[in-house]
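Team,

Forwarding the record for the chain on the shared tracking sheet. I've put the sequence and predicted structure together so nobody has to dig through attachments.
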Amino acid sequence: MQRVLVIGPCGAGKSTLAAQLGQTLDLPVFHMDQLNWRPGWVESSKDDIRARLAAITTGERWLIDGNYGGTLDARLARADTVVYLDFPIHLCAWRVLRRIWAYRGRSRPDMTEGCPERFDLEFFLYLLAWNSGPRPRTEEKLRDYHGTLVRLKNPRALQEWRASLDKQPA
């Protein structure tokens, strides 16, 4: 695993896993949220994000977390491994609410400084509609992916997979 994507619904734990895997695999970690958002919740242009991603994905070693469907094809083309946290939406919704409460008024570690955590109804509705919108689009993009796809359906499967990585020889 040298070029890794961590994808899945909001609140699945992509950024947490990315930080852990980055340390385990000694890979530089990039968060799509940090690439996309500027302070004050100002969204970067699509061209700006693509340019930043190109600079990262042309490298031989990286780990990127986040879905951002408009850039997923380009990242998939270079990734050797995709870890898909395919968790139940009710669990993800609970985790998002818990995250909002835990970081309220502060930027979380995987987010751009100056983007304090807050409740955003549009974002929450996007999450609740995951199975009917983003999931089918993500599945379509994964259909042509030829690298290693690790699909984890729940936190226990993630825990078991992480434990199996720790047992592998270096």
